[in-house]
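CHAIN AND CONFORMATION:

***
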Amino acid sequence: MDRNKQILEFCPNFYKILEFTPYEDDKISGKLIKLYQKYIFEIDVNNEEDVESVKQLDHVISKYIDDYLFRKEMQKQIVNIKIRKDAKDILKEIIKSILKIFDNYEEYTTRVIYISRWI
């Protein structure tokens, strides 16, 4: 099977993400989509960790497109990403930071709902 087709199987939201048109003054969304596109085609499809990170990234960028509040939070947080100087793969470190921002957002916004019992 062609490598690109194999990668696109891991990314069900690929075309939705590429067709997204950001607002005119939104510079971060375009760059984030380019990062997504560059990263998914550079992975090793035989490496399970890379495949899992691509699946997560696809979900995160899809959420970024669909959820206005998450988009605003991501735009606020992404400018504060810090990468160590001795990092071997800068793109991979940026993607890890983006996934961490998403995890923090999910943890922060997901509320625990208690169902009370009426007597």
Remarks:
- The chain has six helices and no strands.
